[in-house]
Amino acid sequence: MGVNSVAVLGAGHGGCAAAADLGKRGYSVRLHARNPERLATLRAQGGIEARGIQRGLVPIDLLTTDVAEAVRGADLIMLVVPSVAHGHYAQALAPLIDGSQAIFINPGHTGGGLHFQHELRNAGYRGPVRSCETVTLTYITRLEGPGTVNIFSYTKRLGFAALPGRQTAALFALIKPLYAEIQQASSVLETGLSNLNAIFHPEGMIMNAGWIQHTNGNFLFYREGFTDAVGRVTAAVDAERMAVAKALSVPAIPFIDVFYEAGLTTKAARDSGDISRACRESEPNKTIKSPASLDHRYVHEDVGYGLVPISALGQLAGVATPTIDALIKLAGLAVGIDYMRDGLTLERLGLKGKSPSELLRIVEDCD
Amino acid sequence: MPPIKTIAIIGAGNGGCAAAAYLAHRGFDIRLYGRSRATTEPLSATGGIEYEGALGDGFAPLSLITNDTGAAIAGADLVLIMAPTHAHEDVARTIAPHIAPRQLVMAAPGHTLLLIPNTIRKGGGRLGIYCDSSSLPFICRKSAPGRINITGVAQILYFAVFPGEKVAAVAEDVRQVFPHIEPTPSLLHTVFPYTNAIHHPPALLLNVGRVESTGGDYHHYYDGITPSVGRLIDALDAERVAVAAALGVWIEPLPQFFFRMGYTNAAGRDSGTAYGVFHNSEPNRWIKASATIDHRFLNEDVPYGLVAIAELGHVAEVPTPCADAVIEIASIVAGRSYRRDGLTRDRMGIDAMTVSQVTTLLRSGQLPGPEPSPQDLRLR
């Protein structure tokens, strides 16, 4: 049975892109936003104005602030919200689901599915769950106004896995018609440990914190911000991520190779092994300005929901991650948030006290 | 100890030249040792040093300018080490064979605990009394190879003696040389007022990309210390104060200390934050950032500042997670282990000691060793 109706939960950049793209392609779309103002413009103009790979005004079947109304009878529930909102949606969904609907966490970053399912259990849900996730959003997109979304492209070669892992093949078959670019990964640990944004965004932000705050980010983030020393710290973070993956027998590819294969840098830069150079020679990123403030997802999400769960998995696997831990500490001090407490810890992943073999069993079977 | 008349100054950089000019100007017999000919030759050519600034303009003749440590030290009443902390170990090794028990050895700045006295002893030096100050006594810079510009003389110079119980008598002698010293009970007390350790590394580390991309084309304090950088400095300061307190050393937090030193105004002090302190710091306002990350803000202030605080935190069982994080990332930035190269407990001469052992050692000068002391025998 294929997907006809999709409940898109979240109406930010990603949610609007998904609603417009899937709506245009003939799916029945229900779009949920927590904030009614988010939907007001869409109601007034009769849908989402799309640019890029889809064009024109796309009517949406249902615009609602009621999660129950959005998910009732939908073939697929797609969660397209920042990781910080996963807990909120788990609370809302716990009384509404029975395990029959697949849940696609788009994106799940690192440990999104584990966190979401743990929150469902905390909210009292005891039935089966079939969730699946990609590490990053299936679109490269940006809202260009309250009712206008520019969808630049689909994200290419995007790893995809289900939780429990034994459901991956079935859910892959279900989602593939929606997103042709997804590729089966061995587990949510593989997708989670391929979270490249977490590997280099925090360094770019923290090691330029003064520059960002003094000039409101008036420099080119990749071309000027990723100097030799920033590249060295990124390499150290990447080495720790690779070590965590290895200890858990999870396949992982070095940052610079992924960066190159995604078309983000030159072959010469890849061959040099120099991450700073790879960022400086990134053609698609060359004009991208720095975020204007540290109060940004490059810190909140990529540290709290990226570096923190990677460190947590390292702790579980008995692999020290001193560089990652130090960056988490500095990022927290810079923005006044204790990420080691508030981010995706082993406890929030539902993995506290688990051994590596228990982790692998949970990821495969969810028990 | 006889009154101090003859002083051997070890080091002919900015600090050494300022000390030579200042002390010769005040009538002491000065021998100046510099390691390299390139440094001493311009001085030898005139037989002394030209000075300008706070002392007025003038020329200070020196009785000896040499590259020979033995010649500089022989017969001197005071051996004054004027070298950056990261050179202390090398300097101590070089002078060790020449040190006689009647000579007072002083490091200004010191704040490296027992690194110098232990290195001198290991090198065969017959060390009597050692003392140090918390900072360089001058604000100075060479304006030409044979000329020093002394823009200020430190008004607060914490002073400590090893062994600490001799501080009163030694301070009386050293006051002839540096009238501004404030005697403290032990060498621990000159370690902690080293505030460069807590603000230089974070100010550079959280601007690494800007330094490398622009060659440091911004104002180090005024532009570089933003609210977030300031928060990190505040956190490091809190760790410094906590570790000191656990070792029985009371120190002022950065805002109060900087106000008393004249580096910030009352608004800066009252802000209670590093951000407020530096944004109300007129003397620091126009200071440019370092042109490169290969700079003493990391190379000296991390291994000889933050590492010392973290290591003393170990002794005192006070965690220093912020200092540890800065040390970790700074080491990767610099491509070397600042912890390994820095002031470890071993280098400070307090490895495997408890707080009370450290305190006793610094007060009495008694080194715990394989030979039981008479007191131990009595206890048995």
Question: Can you characterise this structure?
Answer:
The complex is a heterodimer of chains A (367) and B (380). Chain A has 367 residues and is of the alpha/beta class. Helix content of chain A is 45%, strand content 15%. Chain A has helices at residues 13-24, 36-45, 67-71, 86-93, 112-122, 168-175, 188-192, 196-206, 209-215, 228-247, 255-261, 267-272, 275-280, 297-317, 322-335, 339-342, 356-365, and strands spanning 5-9, 28-32, 48-52, 56-58, 62-64, 76-79, 102-105, 131-134, 139-145, 148-154, 158-163, 182-184. An 8-stranded mixed beta sheet of chain A has the order 5-2-1-6-7-8-11-12. Chain B is of the alpha/beta class. Chain B folds into 2 domains: 6-191, 3-Layer(aba) Sandwich (Rossmann fold); 196-362, N-(1-d-carboxylethyl)-l-norvaline Dehydrogenase, domain 2 (Orthogonal Bundle), CATH 1.10.1040. Helices cover 44% and strands 15% of the residues of chain B. Chain B has helices at 14-25, 37-46, 69-73, 88-95, 115-122, 167-175, 188-191, 196-205, 208-214, 227-246, 254-260, 266-271, 274-279, 296-299, 302-316, 321-334, 338-341, 345-348, 355-364, 374-379; strands spanning 6-10, 29-33, 48-53, 58-61, 64-66, 78-81, 104-107, 130-133, 138-144, 147-153, 157-162, 181-183. An 8-stranded mixed beta sheet of chain B has the order 5-2-1-6-7-8-11-12. In chain B, helix 8 (196-205) packs across helix 15 (302-316), helix 8 (196-205) packs across helix 16 (321-334) and helix 15 runs antiparallel to helix 16 (321-334). Chain B is globular. The two termini of chain B are 36 Å apart. The relative contact order of chain B is 0.10. The model of chain B is unreliable at 376-380 (pLDDT under 50). Classes of the chains: A alpha/beta (367), B alpha/beta (380).
